[in-house]
Fold these 4 entries.
Entry 1:
Amino acid sequence: MFLAVCRNGSTLAASRKLGLSQPTVTRRISALEHALGLKLFDRDTHGFRPTDAARRLLPHAERLEDSAGAFGAAAAQARRANAQAIRITAPRRNFSPIFTAIIAEFIAEHPGTRFEFIASYEVLDLVAGAADIAIRIAPQIDDARLICARLTHVASTLFASRGYALRHGLPASAAEFAGHSFVVFDRERDRCR
């Protein structure tokens, strides 16, 4: 506040620079003068002119400003250095161009964010910290310790050749699946069997 008024010559100009109201800047300058027991500005129709006391304090205030800026920059650098990667686990096929675009957009909005991707069908223990986010195909997840959200609805369909249908018939419901043969995706080997 003190530096802004010194540099801009008035509480009005300082308030615009700081994004505060002029009365707020004026009150804070008055509070600073009261706390220091010094008159820092001569007020007249042309604005606020620094007194001799203010001019003597100015270099010290500028050093404080530099130190505060350096402190903030060092803290930001420390935050970036200590930031843990967000670990996302999902089946390999989920790491698609659409997924990549979503992650790229997130990083653009939150620079410095790092991700680690774990391509696996294995159900990792999120509560134990094996990953932070899991994308899974499941009818429902019943674990009160997790925050779950449905990303999409996945539908599946059964297909059969005419020859199979003629030899074995077609099941009309899940109850009639017994005795039928199916080609299914083998999660362990990432292929059909």
Entry 2:
Amino acid sequence: MDENAPQDAAEAPKSAAGADAQVTRTAARLSEYGFFFDFDGTLSPIQQDPESVQPVPGGVDALAALAANARVTAIVSARPVAFLAERFGGVRGLRLHGLYGLEYSPDGGATVTTAPEAEPYAPVIARVVAEAREAFPGALIEDKRLSCALHFRTDPSLEPGIEAWATLHAEAYGLRLQHGRMVVELKPPLDTDKGAVVLREAAGLAGAWYFGDDLGDLPAFAALDKLAAEQPGFHAVRVAVGTAEGRGAALAEHADVLLDAPESVPTLLDSFH
């Protein structure tokens, strides 16, 4: 880099425009690359009601075009695979990793595999969900069968109480906490996260992109760093989407490219074709 270059030029890769060089390099070998996406806040806007969330306009078509040409195209989400399949099941070649990798479908949800070591925690999670709903009747308590998410987006004043309650119950039931935007989640204490998925799925590729918006995506960014360090020539691109809100802002510090909102993702993906 030219040491006399102006500061704004040095910062260019942190913008959508700065992605041009990354796209050019990737497009030349697209069939050797992997693309990994979070869902909420990345391929969809954040909504008060998690069940109402849908992909942004153009998102499904953009993923379909990418999946037809890239080596790996996958969604890696805290959502269950069944939820993702309802929205992306028609995309041929799209891999779905749900519940931070506890569930996996190689075929858009037609078949689903659950990590066998996670299954024994289903009754524990059911108990936690019931207790959480009793403790916080005004909060949205999301039952994902193998994880329990306590949302406080509709009432931020609940955050201290939910954080304390979740910490206590995670210790009592031997569960692990996962923090996100306006939510805290209790899940099985397994070494499975978005980073583990990316490490496994992107190994041996020429490069990989990861698109995320929240703290739960940091392990995926770290996985790309690890692959770049271990595989000479591996091209890693970390994209942070709409991270101005709350805890998600920390992700931007580790990104190569910043997009202002989920609606910008299809536009960027279209540039590969």
Entry 3:
Amino acid sequence: MSDIATAFVRLHARLAPVAFVPEVRLHQADEPIGLWELTEGEFRSEQPPPFWAFAWAGGQALARYLIDHPEVVAGRRVLDLASGSGLVAIAAARIGAASVRAVEVDPRAVAAVRLNADANGVRVDAELADLLDGAAGDAELVLAGDVFYSEAMANRVLRFLLRAARGGARVLVGDPGRAFLPRNRFTELATYDVPVPPALESVRVKRTTVWELVAGPGRTAG
């Protein structure tokens, strides 16, 4: 773990329970806009925004679903794609996954996942990598929270998730109605009203759905 990245997470985020998943504690930013602006200049030079510092609605819903349905995870090898804070990965580890791999492209996110896993007393293998042009490895369950926020990201994520599903993995996604979610590829599993930071989402609650990917040809979800 990079000492600099770890120090940055500790400096700018405070360990606290997640609003919709209080079983899990994360290092979260108290003032999201200030931290976003602090890292904005680096983002223009390819440093990702601090997605790791917030419990996004898609991740909260997906983590809540897993904790309420532990049979989905128990004994399975899990991959948490674009893990952010590690919320979904930590939830999976808490409820009996055989192993949990959390993958991120931001070194600070990797540091946050490791810190958060330690704080929750679970093992998560946090990895710095971009898997989207590759494969899900031996994962039996692939999880992704709030990943359809841009067209370019959505296209790459969907291709990766389809490869994983066609390779035999079950694929679950949490999404709060982002514009680029291809709903015709998914079946709805559950819907929640999730508390979110108004400064980021312009509302206090986001209606958020947990979806399961259908590996075959696109169809209307329902």
Entry 4:
Amino acid sequence: MAEADVDAQASPQVRFGQELRRSRRARRWSQTEAARHLGYSGAHISYVENGKRSPTRPLAVKADEVFGSGQRFYELWRRFSRAALLEGFAEFADAEARCRRLRTVGLIIVPGLLQTPAYARALAQAAVRRGAITPTEADERTDYLALRQEVLEQKCPPVIHAVLEEGVLLRPIGGPQVMAEQLRHLEDLAERPNITVQIAPFAMGENLSFTLPVVLLNLPDHTVVGYAESTARGHLERSRATVAGWESDYDQLLVEALPKAASQEMIRKARKEDRS
């Protein structure tokens, strides 16, 4: 059966499959032989090659290893993952990966860079249960978050300052064990010299200066951009006047929030109470 021609540029998933087929045929391997080298079933490789199953990060990494392709499959997987993101988020993720300083406000949940894998999976699985995303899209979200979090392990990681509303510590995401692990992770991250975590207590009341999560990014060219999102889309804000207003609100938030030591104690207390 002749293979149908497709517009690879319009479908990152199909492009990945085409590259996998091309690399396999260059080695004169059948799908079964390729599957054996890649550690997957022949049926799985067939589905991926035909664009009927989403590529995953482990498959991309293994394909680059097996075919000696540098990071070609990894980059194709990144493009595929970004295509499934909230509108505007991919642009933010690019800026996040390059930033020198990141300031963030967490109001409902722990910000992505600070989440544990189990916490992130619990959020993604809840979205699946609501019918908002598919199980495959849930996997893509958690895989992409792991990729974003690699910025924390760079030789020169960005300076990160996170202010979390007290409710973030108390909202039981994923159950007691997942939540206790997440709170411990926040404690550990806050001990790093480049990461500060402060808690905005309920007692701040109307003085909490943000009603939506916001991120401020200092880029290598010394510009500062902001990011905020609704349920429908994200927006990377470049207007200097708008960003300056957000920075002013953030500075005020730092004054009102608990100091670093008191914030650590509140996180520790929430973790112990959650386990009791």
